[in-house]
Amino acid sequence: MKITRIWFDSDFIYGVDESGKEYRQSLLWYPALKNATEAERSNYKFGFRGIHWRGLDEDISFDSFAADDAEPSALQRFFLTHKEIKISEFAKIVGIDATLLRNYVNGFKKPSKEREQVILGGIHALARQYAAAEF
């Protein structure tokens, strides 16, 4: 598959392939593009395997447009939008290997329902600690 045309809205990058099929991907996967200006977004080159934004040091493969995870899961969305939470430290708190948690966040692996509940419990515990802070 080769994407031949792209465009953006505030949340997604869209692409059309050679057959006219339309795809989309969440810009949460690509923070440099999400935060880029229209001029920065329009400064790209199509390559053999994907699209490259030299000024943003960002690449998107054509194959990624056909991936099943165009929209991040709730767990992925939480960590992708809360970069202030260091995944390696959070993983220690909830007793999960940091590499495994990164794989969940990046979509390389999918956690079981039980594991999702452990992670959600850790997020709720962290929220309670923040809410209890007094100065």
Structural write-up:
The strands form two sheets. Strands 1-2-3 form a three-stranded antiparallel beta sheet, with no helix packed on it. Strands 4-5-6 form a three-stranded antiparallel beta sheet, with no helix packed on it. Helix 4 crosses helix 6. Strand 4 and strand 5 form a beta hairpin. The chain is elongated. The longest helix has 20 residues. The protein has 135 residues and is of the alpha+beta class. The mean pLDDT is 93. The chain is built from six helices and six strands.
Note the main attributes of this structure.
135 residues; alpha+beta; 3-stranded antiparallel beta sheet
| Total count of strands | 6
Treating each run of at least 4 consecutive H or I residues as one helix, how many helices?
Answer: 6
**Helix share of residues?**
25-40%
* End-to-end gap: 56 Å
What is the averaged pLDDT score? 93
Trace the largest sheet across and list its strands: 1-2-3
Strand percentage: 15-25%
What are the low-pLDDT stretches, counting only 5+ consecutive residues below 50? Answer: none
Radius of gyration: 18 Å
Report the structural category. alpha+beta
Largest sheet geometry? 3 strands, antiparallel
Topology order in helix (H) and strand (E) letters:
EEEHHEEEHHHH
Give the overall form: elongated
